[in-house]
Design a protein that fits this description.
- By secondary structure, the chain is α/β, with parallel strands linked by helices.
- It folds into 2 domains: 1-76 and 148-264, 3-Layer(aba) Sandwich (Rossmann fold), CATH 3.40.50.300; 83-146, no CATH class.
- Helix content is 29%, strand content 24%.
- The chain is built from 9 helices and 11 strands.
- Helix 3 packs across helix 4 (131-143).
Length: 271
């Protein structure tokens, strides 16, 4: 793969015709996607669909069999992996963990911990904080290098439903304030569909891609997740002029609409 060939204007990463094989088995094939600065692109699909394989190939962690991944030269990438195993006997605080990214960044540790809302547990044991606080610690570490592109593999795993809503709102806030692109894998259909600009649905191959409201009505999406999921998302999709902060408070943003926030038919906010 040649990652430094000319990339379309505004794009941070461009994937075309990507295929990954392992031991003569096709893991993903025919995948196309583009992430631009200031854009959230979410990859969805059932278990075993190849979502993590796709992310790892984009990052160059595993080789592609064919196709191309082009990354804009000079792009800084922050990565939150799906799983992280920590030695339970290792004394480690969120502040120290974030600082493992590099000693020269130590002066910025408190700033990024505050940015993700966990400055108050900066010196607690990382083994004693909640699942949501751990995910925010991983996010803080990814933000330390001021990334142009955030790559998040299941960022809301091991987090309760309230924490998931808050975390997706935080990711939107980071995108808004930093202007970075976000490539995110998720299985939380209702939440991610309300907090993304584009959706890429895969199941070993590219099933469909586009705006969340269009993808939720696509025949391949309905075949994967069921007509009930499509109907529910049709109720949830709603364009409006306010956003929610990490505490769930509503803020009006006249003239600035990033698109999708989750409501049901009775008007109550769900994400």
């Amino acid at each position: 793969m040649n990652q430094n060939r000319k990339i379309e204007p505004g794009a941070l990463v461009e994937v075309s015709g990507l295929e990954v094989r392992a031991k003569n088995r096709v893991l993903v094939t025919g995948i196309d996607l583009t992430v631009a600065a200031g854009e959230i692109v979410s990859v969805i699909g059932p278990n075993g669909a190849g979502k993590t394989t796709l992310i790892r190939a984009v990052l160059g962690l595993i080789p592609a069999t064919s196709g191309r991944v082009r990354i804009r030269p000079g792009t800084r990438i922050g990565y939150v992996p799906q799983r992280l195993t920590l030695n339970p006997n290792l004394p480690l605080s969120p502040r120290r963990f974030v600082g493992l990214s590099g000693a020269k960044m130590k002066g910025r540790r408190q700033a990024v911990l505050d940015e993700v809302g966990i400055g108050h547990v900066a010196d607690s044991s990382i083994h004693d904080i909640s699942g949501g606080e751990l995910q925010r610690t991983l996010l803080a570490r990814a933000l330390l290098s001021d990334p142009d592109l955030l790559v998040l593999d299941e960022p809301a795993q091991a987090v309760d439903i309230t924490g998931q809503t808050e975390l997706y709102a935080l990711i939107e806030k980071i995108r808004d304030e930093r202007g970075c692109g976000v490539l995110m894998v998720s299985h939380d259909l209702h939440l991610v569909m309300s907090a993304t600009d584009k959706v890429v649905c895969i199941n070993g191959h590219l099933c469909c891609a586009g705006r969340p409201d269009a993808v939720s009505q696509h025949p391949e999406y309905v075949a994967l997740f069921g007509a009930e999921a499509a109907r529910a998302l049709a109720l949830y999709q709603h364009h409006h002029d306010h956003t929610h902060d990490v505490d769930g408070h509503v803020h009006n943003e006249h003239g600035h609409d990033h698109g999708h926030h989750a409501h049901n038919h009775d008007g109550h906010t769900h994400g």
